[in-house]
Amino acid sequence: MKVMKDLYYTKDHEWVKVEGDLAYVGITDYAQSSLGDIVYVELPEVDDEFEKEEAFGAVESVKAASDVFMPVGGKVVEVNEELIDDPALLNADPYENWMIKIEIADKAELDELMTSEEYEKFLAEEE
Amino acid sequence: MDGRKTPLYEEHVKLGGKIVNYAGWLLPVQYEGLIPEHEAVRNKAGLFDVSHMGAIRVAGKDAEKFLDYLLTNDISKMKDNQVVYTFMCYPHGGVVDDLLTYKFSNEEYVLIVNAANVDKDYDWIMDKKEGFDVEVENQSDETSILALQGPEAVNILQKLVDIDLSEIKPFYLRRDVKVAGINAMISRTGYTGEDGFEIYVDNEGVLKVWDELLKVGKDFGLKPAGLGARDTLRFEATLPLYGQEISEEINPLEAGLKFFVKLNKEADFIGKEALTKMQEEGLKRKMVGFELKGRGIPREGYEVQKDGKVIGHVTTGYMSPTLKKSIGNALIDVNEAEIGNEVDIMVRNKPVKAVIRDRKFLQNR
Fold first, then answer.
1. How far is A61 from chain B (nearest CA, A)?
2. Does pLDDT of B365 surpass 70?
3. Nearest CB to A39 within list B30, B228, B319
4. Between these two residues, A1 and B307, which has the higher pLDDT value?
5. For residue A65, what pLDDT band results from cuts at 50, 70 and 90?
6. How far apart are CA B40 and CA B35, in angstroms?
7. Residue A62: pLDDT band by 50, 70, 90 thresholds?
8. What ipTM was reported for this prediction?
9. What's the pTM value of the predicted model, to 2 decimals?
10. For residue B76, what is the DSSP state?
11. Mapping DSSP to helix (H, G, I), strand (E, B) and coil, where does residue A105 land?
């Protein structure tokens, strides 16, 4: 399973890439691999606000739908429209193909997330 | 993971199969991916291990009479070596199981039943055979079954048999065929909407047949295919799944499958009275097809609403790999079942517009 350094991770297999007060959010390699072929992505609107651990969207494979949760609370400033027409991009490269870009509400919430080493350990225990 | 293994379990693991527990069996939901496997069956061929299904032999002087009473289709009209699809119903018309009946002779038949219902079916048959001169044998544990499906299936299988496969018409069987040297029964049947064969062998022989089919099939584009593709393929082909389109609560008439219920056959059968009455009085619910007009994927169990009122539920729904759009089956109030009627499918609690259509999804593709 690919785990990228310099990202933060959640127990629900989302990743966060912080850039100042903004952050990109997506799903991890483990998540896309578990889902199988992703055929549908549900994204929020720009300006939508969500709390930490609130569902901001969903990814669906042929067989199942899976909610995607905010790693930290914030406001949506951009969504990756490419995923609407080509959901398979999430399978192809889940780290390159972010889902949403947010303005972080409270940076302290980042401290509650896992580092890449902690996520790798977490994955080893999941198996 | 707990569960029973078919003789091919290790092969599925070796091929990278993602193993799940289905009806108590450990089987692959996919290998390479649901969509490539689905497309392989539609365009070339796919190979499924369906050994989890059940085989119940019914033999004796009264075999034909008993089965004509037990099953809804007209068993008395069957020819030797013919296969018919039929239901086994409860007295109230609900379905015990849907199954294929293989006729060897008037005195010998084998019923191929759903994996999830084998024990229930066997108990039901044993209970109903009283007064008929028949013996009933559950052969499920000794029977391995492969399904080879797709336009190239006949070309692939032809390489491994000595007989001329064009002599076996759809819904007919042939026994004692050597497939890669292994003794088998084959039938031109399947659950995908494509041409294909189902191959029945002893547990000891199935590995050789599986290996040889994959080897020979490689040049034809054959892929091993799992349970995931099996469901999307049968759904597109308008074939029911027990527990979703038919069940103890959903009878064959409501499911739009009355072709397989011969209400006019001479023999009485279990459920005949109730189903005849329903037919005369008119159904209250009906199975329809629908297509989503908005974004989303309709799934089993989602509510169907019209103007805020619940009118039914989705029995199966998918983003169809072949049609590349979101379609489904729904069991709804008969008054709303007209083609072209606009309804709402509650997708993850949000209404998405859908339009009622026919269920022949694969027509004109």
1. 9
2. no
3. B319
4. B307
5. confident
6. 8
7. confident
8. 0.76
9. 0.91
10. G
11. coil
Strand order across the A65-69 sheet: A38-42, A55-61, A65-69
Which domain does A29 fall in, by range?
A: 8-107
Question: How many domains would you assign to chain A?
Answer: 1
pLDDT, residue A64, reads 84
Question: Is position A123 within any domain?
Answer: no
Q: Is residue A113 part of a domain?
A: no
Query: A13: domain CATH number?
Result: 2.40.50.100
Q: From chain A, which residues contact B within 8 Å (Cβ)? A: 36-37, 39-40, 42, 58, 60-63, 65
CB burial of B234-246 (b: ≥16 within 10 Å; e: otherwise) equals bbbbbbbbbbbbb
Asked if pLDDT for residue A63 goes beyond 90, the answer is no
Task: Spell out which residues of chain A touch residue B295, defining contact as CB-CB under 8 Å.
Answer: 40, 42
The CATH number corresponding to B9-51+142-236 among 3.30.1360.120, 3.40.50.300, 3.40.50.150, 2.60.40.10 equals 3.30.1360.120
**Nearest by CB: A62 against B296, B319, B348:** B319
Q: What is the pLDDT of residue B30?
A: 95
For B284-357, give the CATH class.
mainly beta
Find tokens 């199942």 and name the residue.
Answer: A64
Indicate the average pLDDT of chain B.
97
What token pair was written down for B245? 């389109």
